[in-house]
Amino acid sequence: MRKDSFLVGLIKWGCWSFVAGVGIANVLGPQPHEFMLKMWMLCSVFFLLSGFLFFAHRDLVRYTLIPAVIVLGLASYQWRFDTSNPNHIKNFKDKTRWASTVIEGTIVADPDVREWITHVVIKPEKIIEDPDSDLSELRELTGKTGYMILFVSEGIEEENPYYRNMEFGDRIRANGAVTAPMQLTNPYGFDYEKYLKNRNIYASMYVGEPEDMEYIEKSDLNFYSRLKKSSFKIKKRMILGLKKTVPPPASAFIGGVTVGARGGVPEVQKFDFQATGVAHVLALSGLHVGFLAIMLIMVFNNFFKSPLLFYKLPSKIFRREIDLTPYSLKLIPLFVIFVLFIFTIITGARAATIRAAMMFSIGIIFANWLGMNLNRAGSLTIPMAAAIMLSANSFLIYDASFALSFAAVWSIIYLSGPLRQIFTRIIVGWGQLVFFIFLIFALSVLLVSPWLFVNPLFNMYMVGFFGLAAAAAYFFEKKFPLIGFEFEGWWPFITGFFCVQLSIQIGMMWPLSGLYFNRFPVAGMIANFIAIPLIGIIVPLGLIGQLFTFWPGVGEHIGLAIGATNNMLSNFFLWMARFFRTYFPYPIQSAPPAKWLATYYIMVVIFGFNRSIRNFLSKKLKLSKKGAVWGVVGLLIFIFSSVYWAEDIVKGKVKEDNELLITFLDVAYGNCILIQTPQGKNMLIDAGARGDKRFWTMGKWGKGSSVVIPNLSGYNISKLDKVIVSNPLPENIGGMIYLLEYFNIDEAWDSLDPEKFTRNMHYRDFLEAFNDVRLLIRMDQPLSIGMYLNYYDFLNMNLARPEQTTKDNLNEHIFKADLVAHKWAHEGTIIHREEYDGKVLKLEAINPPAERFSGTGDDILNNSLVLKLTYGEISFLIPSNIQREGEYLLVDKYGENLKSSVLVMPDHGSSMASSERFLRAVNPVFAVAQYGYLKGRSFYNTELDRTIRKYDDNNIKTYRTDKMGAVEMRTDGKVLNIDTVVETF
Amino acid sequence: MKSATSKFVFALIIGAYVVGRIYMLFVPTYTIENNLELNAGYYSSITESTTTEKSPAAGNGAGEAD
Q1: Is the pLDDT at A299 greater than 70, yes or no?
Q2: pLDDT score at B1
Q3: Listed residue (A187, A104, A85) closest to A150, CA to CA
Q4: CA angle centred on A549, ends A547 and A554, rounded to 5°
Q5: How many CB atoms lie within 10 A of CB A792?
Q6: Nearest Cα to A204, choosing from A154, A139, A151, A156?
Q7: How large is the average pLDDT for residues A759-786?
Q8: Number of domains within chain B
Q9: What's CA A811's distance to the chain center, in Å?
Q10: Residue of chain B minimizing CA distance to A549
Q11: A244/B56 CB distance under 8 A
């Protein structure tokens, strides 16, 4: 046993070191060859030393093996990152989006069919760089080329029937521009380029014309690919069986959770699941593989133990009693692993499923063959599976699902035990009563108003009450102990499940859901109590029902009956998700800063390993048992308190106290400016577009959720004091709708009179109220319809008259927290004013007049809210989308007073604005263009280039968000510092 | 694993079958043919609804430059 645990320890430490090596390499980034050479030498020395020590001085092996393996991890990352091959696809990028390159390659993954586009990942094999030129030649791409992603438009479907038949393993030819994937660059938020690199994808191509894509042949498939293809056939059969036995929508749901057919699950349903915190049931992962493994073990156990087959049979043959049970039991893992393997392939061999199958396989082998208990086997499983997966792809370390599932499994193994101890030893009797009452209370508060938890006063009350109640419970327990009210006394399944759930929440959901999703599903804690056991019945029943249909006739009818039950259960599941989604909030949760996360996890690890720490304290430091407990508690309190005494270190500082920070976010074509004032007020002017029209109802991928929220959370902003909409154009107001629904906002300002624009307006009245005659003529044009729908939703999203939304006292706050005061800004309105250190900060509207313009070239644009922000000697002019006419009117009215240090280019730099007269009057030193190409809405790049030349001629330095990413401007009222996210100098 | 727990899977199948049969007694339209038909209609309705749910202009007023 001793020897055994030595080896196990070595494997465990070795795997963790490898993971650490990859982690360090990720932080260091790519290194030059000389550095790696030295590292390799170091690595070999350490390995040799380890080999020597293994025989000579075994106890010391780990000290040499750990650095050796860390270097190995580093090297594996370097090897993976190596893109030095001259044939690498990243070397063939075209300069313009209308260039042409012909690529031949093999499809390496199942095409990802979306609603209007299909993503196809290919491995490039041949390239013709400039097919139109006479000098063009075909070039073979050999070696490590990286992958390329094709965005194939659904538009080609009609004339190119291959669109519907694209398949894994096909060799195809595509024609288009090889470009870097389009992406927005902001200080914080989703990095699409990195996401693709994690998948070895370095270039992209948009295929929009039918003749740009062509099928060549099936490529020679290797064994694995052939296995994959045949298992897809089984999958098709299973889905057919499902369609026979279960009606929709349950069939789509069961198809998703059993064989990973997600196409049929509508977006709205997926959103229900996300908001309820049970989305993990849709992503085939550990849970499903776990259920399958347990079911298989149960079935095989029965099978192998059945006396007929394995016990009695040999005794009949050999006429002797031979107990084969122990041997046959050893075979179970092999069978289970084989079935898990097939299941993984059937479900499309996704990373999550592979990982889960691998972890279960390793765990089962160790538990069954080496006779380890499940916890010890589990503690080995995590580092081993992580090391194996990272050695295959070291970029995975930043992958959300990788991190989340490992965090979840880690928490189950290391936290549920200590948690159980707390509930059986410390929180007992009266304490338990107090704990659960508080739990219910906290959940109720979350239900009514999640924002309360942001309020420091409320939190102080909560901590105070909880402390008093806990003290009272302690006193009562001493005097009148509550006998019979013990956690252990409950049904063991429920208590175990509760601890597992709580440990997942502590180890994964609380810290990480904010980091990866910026949202926190409050319902998750309760919903999972019902969802997980339920899915544990739905999944096996679904699989069994589908398998029965393989047997025509009788089997189909048995399958149908099982399907009927499963249909009821699934419908209940769907109803439950809808219920929780409707009645529980799904609030925005800021991404915790890295240092805060580190602090949190140090505490979690101390808690998880508290027994070892206590042992260490009492044995090595000779502390008494009680002293050791207090030692751990003291350590926890010390680290927790660092949030207060080392706030800047833990939280990370975004800006100096006396600073005004303005961020011009990159939202492609659209306005979006974030203002953080010296006094700590946060204001947002516009929020970009709403997102793809297909996701209209949810605003998925809209700039509100994809850009604004991650950046707010990056800047540690949990509340917007004011949001301002400069005009109702979809690319300005769209993102605001998402924010109003899910973010904590105090006031919403726009240039339209709240009295005139009300909820539930008639379409025609609405267009009339804009005071623009042309809108009524163009009623059925995309712009007017888009504007109507966006503004209509904006109004219906919690906006209320200012007098309805006073949040002065706690009581009002609780019940009216969701209402946002709707205010009207026009010429002369001072939207914000504050003083800091004797300097005045003022945000004032200078356009439109209270009586809106009518009869100009474009009234909608010329009636945009024009804002002037002044702080000390520095000023910013933010003219939104006004046109030349509007500019002239402003110059006539304000003249010299328009002068500003920074000008945001009116109308994103279009040729219809930025007139010479206006530029001379404003006379800025710097100008910013918030530009990006948006199909159908924006003008072309060349037009912006012309405008920028005009600024150059006037000696104005320009910044553009499409090339430089977001622009950050900081000022103390005297000096202005400008930073861009993409380095340009 | 105790053999008592392993019987759970079989109990589940039989239980589900019995409950399903009873359900089918009350809902005679629950047949393979009907299910196939409903499913066919459902999947096409999903793909159709994405193009007709709202006016094509709904999203960002995408369509034509203004």
Answers
A1: yes
A2: 42
A3: A104
A4: 120
A5: 18
A6: A151
A7: 84
A8: 1
A9: 34
A10: B32
A11: no
Could you give the CA distance from residue A921 to residue A936 in angstroms, rounded to a whole number? 32
Q: Do B58 and A251 lie within an 8 Å CB cutoff?
A: no
Neighbours of A942 (CB within 10 A): 8
CA distance A847 to A657: 31
Q: For residue B38, what are the domain limits?
A: 28-52
Helix B32-52, helix A223-245: angle, nearest 10: 110
Residue of B nearest to A566 (CA): B16
What backbone phi and psi angles, to 5 degrees, belong to A126?
Answer: -135, 155
Contacts of B64 in chain A (CB under 8 A): 781-782, 936
How far apart are alpha carbons A243 and A259 in whole angstroms? 13
The structure tokens listed for A730 are 């979809």
Q: Do B42 and A537 touch (CB under 8 A)?
A: no
B18 occurs within a structural domain: no
Query: Among the residues of A148-266, which ranges form H helices?
Result: 192-197, 223-245, 250-259
C-alpha distance from B5 to closest chain A C-alpha (Å): 7
Are β-strands A745-750 and A720-725 bridged in parallel, bridged antiparallel, or unpaired?
parallel
Q: With contact defined as beta carbons under 8 Å apart, do A666 and A962 qualify?
A: yes
> Which residues of chain B lie closer than 8 angstroms to A295, CB-CB?
9
Cβ pair A299:B9 closer than 8 A:
yes
Q: Which residues of A touch B43 (CB under 8 A)?
A: 248, 252, 264
A104: part of which helix (H) or strand (E)?
Answer: strand A101-107
The tens digit of pLDDT for each residue in A665-724 reads 998 888 999 999 999 999 999 998 886 554 344 445 678 888 898 898 888 888 899 999
Alpha-carbon separation of residue A796 from A166, A482, A719, A815, A916 (angstroms):
43, 52, 20, 18, 41
**Partner-chain contact A785 B20, CB within 8 Å:** no
Q: Do A297 and B1 touch (CB under 8 A)?
A: yes
Identify the closest residue of chain B to A567 by CA–CA distance. B20
CATH of domain A660-752+761-799+820-980: 3.60.15.10
The angle subtended at Cα A403 by Cα A397 and Cα A405, nearest 5°, is: 140
Measured from the Cβ of residue A734, the count of other Cβ atoms closer than 10 Å reads 30
In chain A, whose CA is at the least distance from the CA of B35?
A: A247
Beta-sheet pairing, A745-750 with A682-685: unpaired
B:1-60 residues touching chain A, CB 8 A cutoff: 1, 3, 5-9, 12-13, 15-21, 23-24, 27, 30-32, 34-36, 38-43, 46-47, 50, 53-60
Q: 């010299």: which residue's tokens?
A: A896
For residue B55, list chain A residues with Cβ-Cβ distance below 8 A. 785
Q: How many A-B residue pairs are in contact by the CB < 8 A criterion?
A: 162
Cα nearest neighbour of B8 on chain A: A298
pLDDT, averaged across chain A: 82
pLDDT at res. A683: 97
Count of other CB atoms within 10 angstroms of residue A835: 11
Residue B47 is assigned to a structural domain of this protein? yes
Nearest-Å Rg of the Cα atoms of chain A is: 32
Identify which of B49, B25, B24 has the alpha carbon closest to the alpha carbon of residue B35.
Answer: B24
> Nearest-CA neighbor of A971 among A904, A838, A871?
A871
- Residue B62 is assigned to a structural domain of this protein: no
pLDDT tens for A811-831 read 555 555 567 889 999 999 999
pLDDT of residue A1: 41
Domain spanning A89-220: CATH 3.60.10.10 = no
Q: Domain ranges in chain A?
A: 2-81, 89-220, 594-651, 660-752+761-799+820-980
A815 within 8 A of A758, measured Cβ to Cβ = no
- Facing A561 at nearest CB: one of B20, B56, B58: B20
Give which of B60, B64, B66 to mutate to test A binding, by max A Cβ within 10 Å: B60
Predicted complex ipTM: 0.76
What residue in B sits closest to A544 (Cα-Cα)?
A: B13
